[in-house]
Design brief:
2 domains, Beta-galactosidase, Chain A, domain 5, single chain, five-stranded antiparallel β-sheet, nine-stranded antiparallel β-sheet, 13 helices, alpha+beta
């Protein structure tokens, strides 16, 4: 192997290892985030808001409003009243019980493939989102009056807690899926009141049929951006499955034990993201399974732990939140602050994922007939063209290796008792014939980040949900042809075609000199069939298209080599002699005549 090639290989491996650090730096330099500049609150936040407010621990000597209120029973709730905030994207229902969210209707996303079944609805009636816990009379047990807000997409809710504190909640909805909430706690009593430590919760997130996939086993999860630059904690993949295996309870709970900037409870395609302006003391997550023996999460939720405060007579204490309730769509969430787009969980290849997703959406939006299946094919073609010089060089290297295989085998037999001498002679042979033994691997190594990034995008992009292409009804799910007639969820045709194309490709590709490696390559189509059979059809479409382009590239290369060989034979001395004989014969006959 040449020193230059070794250096290139070392640099590529180093880049892969450094990408988790280098990627965010490049993103910050070339893809700066736009901070959220949504509508301002309807009233300014009081100066005593957030972490600057008096701490409850410093106010233990302050008498509470009325000791008799601590033992007072909560009043019987009045019949529930609801109010709706809506725009072109979402309709969110608010309840008079807890001033909380009963549910949200995603007006741009159908619940099933049949539009008649209506749009996706996130239901929180069993656990209302944005309700407080630990504040008697102001949580889901509390009664609030609802009145219109200052704008068409805003409202106000007001209720009184057991301690006499009045909570006024002002909510506004932007043009997409973001709520802006201002909570003001007012003490109208003549005595100081201690607001105890409390929590604010999100509703349960469950996965509907369109979100389930064998390739996304932990689609339900809880994320939290840790305060102080420690990054996002993804609890859905690590903590929750581990806790489910160890716990014997149907409902399990855990805590991050660290301050956070925001938290999110999410499914495969939708999320709730709660972001207090002043952060929170902790994130508490909860996961539920269908029964004790099950290791599969059926629902998730989360709460933020907030510090209490002492509210002097006639004073107020306020908090400001934003709450996103909508699809996990990068182009929408990226507009908001504090890295909330991290709920997409693109992983270590985030910049590449963002670029590929942008390309996918660009091709869909700009090119007729505006189909994501066609966009996936065009994106695959673009990637193949982009890496054509590298893959071409790799193919050339493999063919040169094939040409010297007899010499390599001869050296192995000659020096089979001396491995060191065998390696020296092989490297000398490579140098003599200018062959790079890892030349065929370099193109694959370079494409690994692109492959994994595209894998992540195609398995999780909500843009492909219910996107059809030819016989495929949903690119985020397996094809499922004749589902209900055939067992195992129907027939997935693309993975079978892909495996047959891999066998075809192996027939026209250069073979390996190592018999063991050749057997492994022969087993690859079977392994890939099992890997891709339960995969989303968008992934299978990408890989099948990729295989077809590789075969076309091989035939193009083979035809060019055959043409060059024919031209070389035509220019050889033997060919010239053969061509000269008929002309000489004609001249002789002409002279005799």
């Amino acid at each position: 192997m040449k020193k230059k090639d070794i250096g290139i290989l070392a640099v590529l491996i180093l880049l892969l290892l450094m990408w988790p650090t280098l990627g965010p730096m490049l993103q910050h330099r070339f893809f700066p985030r736009e901070e959220y500049t949504g509508p301002p609150p309807s009233v300014p936040l009081e100066e005593t808001s957030g972490r600057d407010a008096p701490d409850a621990s410093d106010a233990q000597a302050v008498a509470s409003a009325d000791p008799s209120l601590e033992a007072a029973s909560l009043p019987v709730q009045s019949p529930e009243q609801t109010s709706l905030l809506t725009n072109d994207a979402v309709s969110i229902t608010f309840s008079s019980h807890g001033a909380a969210v009963n549910g949200a209707v995603m007006q741009r996303y159908n619940r099933t493939l049949d539009p008649a079944d209506g749009p996706v609805e996130l239901v929180f009636t069993n656990r209302r989102s944005l309700a407080y816990r630990g504040l008697p009379g102001l949580g889901e047990d509390g009664d609030f009056t609802i009145r219109p807000g200052e704008t068409p997409r805003s409202l106000e809710l007001e209720g009184t807690g057991v301690s006499g504190v009045v909570l006024t909640r002002k909510i506004s909805l932007d043009e997409n899926y973001m709520l802006r909430i201002l909570d003001t706690f007012d003490n109208p009593t003549p005595q100081p009141v201690i607001l105890p430590d409390h929590r604010i919760q999100l509703g349960f997130m469950v996965e509907n049929a369109s979100g389930k996939s064998l390739y996304v086993p932990y689609s339900l999860g809880v994320d939290a951006l840790q305060y102080g630059g420690d990054g996002v904690a993804y609890l859905g993949k690590k903590v929750i499955p581990k806790a489910l295996k160890q716990s014997g309870d149907v409902v399990i709970e855990g805590s991050l034990h660290a301050p956070v900037d925001w938290m999110a409870a999410k499914s495969r395609f939708f999320a709730q993201i709660l972001n207090p302006d002043e952060g929170a003391d902790d994130c508490i997550w909860q996961a539920t399974r269908s029964d004790v023996k099950s290791k599969v999460v059926s629902s998730v939720t989360a709460e933020l732990a907030l510090s209490g405060a002492a509210i002097p007579p006639g004073e107020t204490f306020g908090r400001l939140y934003t709450c996103y309730i909508g699809p996990k769509k990068y182009s929408v969430i990226r507009e908001y602050r504090r890295h909330q787009e991290a709920v997409m969980n693109f992983g270590m290849f985030t910049p590449i994922c963002k670029f590929l997703l942008w390309m996918l959406n660009f091709m869909h939006d700009k090119l007729w007939p505006h189909n994501y299946g066609l966009a996936t094919i065009l994106l695959t073609v673009f990637i193949r063209v982009l890496f054509w010089p590298i893959t071409h060089k790799g193919t050339e290297s493999m063919r040169r290796m094939q040409e010297i295989q007899p010499l390599m085998q001869e050296l192995r037999e000659k020096h089979k008792d001396n491995p060191q001498k065998q390696q020296q002679e092989l490297f000398a042979l490579y140098k003599e014939h200018k062959v790079n033994p890892v030349g065929g691997c370099l193109p694959m190594l370079i494409q690994i980040p692109v492959f994994f990034a595209l894998f992540v995008v195609l398995r999780s992009a909500i843009e492909l949900r219910f996107a059809s292409f030819l016989w495929i009804s949903d690119l985020t799910q397996p094809e499922g042809l004749l589902k209900g007639v055939l067992p195992f969820g129907g027939l997935n045709l693309l993975p079978i075609v892909m495996s047959l194309m891999m066998i075809w490709q192996q027939k026209i590709m250069p073979t390996s000199a190592d018999p063991r490696q050749a057997k492994i390559m022969q087993f690859m189509p079977v392994m890939m069939l099992f890997m891709f059979y339960p995969a989303p059809s968008g992934l299978a479409l990408y890989w099948t298209t990729n295989q077809g382009l590789m075969i076309a590239q091989q035939y193009f290369y083979k035809r060019r080599k055959d043409r060059e060989a024919a031209e070389a034979d035509a220019g050889s001395p033997a060919a010239k002699t053969t061509e000269a004989r008929p002309r000489n014969a004609r001249k002789t006959r002409k002279g005799k005549g």
